[in-house]
Amino acid sequence: MKKALELSSGLFNREETGKKALLVEGALNFFDQPEFITDIGQMQALLKALEEKTKLVQLLDLCLKQDGTTVLIGEESLAEELQNCSLIARNYQRGAKNIGTLAIFGPKRMDYMKAISIVNHTANSITQLLSR
Predict the structure, then answer these.
(1) Domains of the chain
(2) Mean pLDDT over residues 56-81, rounded?
(3) How far apart are CA 128 and CA 20, in angstroms?
């Protein structure tokens, strides 16, 4: 949570530009996961998708339209190169309006209870900070 708040502080301290901002950290951690080490082609496609960010922005845009926590597992992610991954996302608000989405993106075998707890707590903390 501390790392997420540190990373997000840079986004909130900038002037509003009207552009979408996407911050991706820790992509190299996928190299530590056995299901990605054995298939170099899959890893290349995943890293390319993370680098281009377009597919992640599309997923997060879908999440921004949802209420509550969004959990997308494997094939639910809609993009072929992301099918061995999961996304856990929660919006943060200013007032009653969703203004951004905080998410954890990782392998399908992640600890979902822990990831959901971290995402929910951090998004709620950001909402509270924005409400001050």
Answers:
(1) 2-9+26-131 (3.30.450.40)
(2) 84
(3) 21
